Amino acid sequence: MSPGRAAYPSGGDYPRLARRLGLGDAVVIGLGSMIGAGVFAAFTPAAAAAGSGLLVGLALAAAVAWANATSSAQLAAQFPESGGTYVYGRECLGESWGFAAGWAFVVGKTASCAAMAITAATYALGGEARAAQVVGLAVVGALTVVLTRGITKTARLARVLLTVTLACLLVTVLVIAAFTREWAAPSAGVGDATAYGILQSAGLLFFAFAGYARIATLGEEVRAPTVTIPRAITRALGLVIALYAVLALLLLATIGADGIAASALPLLTAAQAADVSWAGVFVRVGATVAALGALLGLLSGVGRTVLAMARRGDLPRLLAAVDPGSKVPAVAQLWVAGAVAVLVLLTDLRHAIGFSSFGVLLYYAIANASAWTQTGEHRRWPRWVQAAGLVGCLALAAALPIGSVVVGALVLGVGVFGRVWLQRRGVARG
Question: Domain containing 188: what range?
Answer without folding.
Answer: 23-424
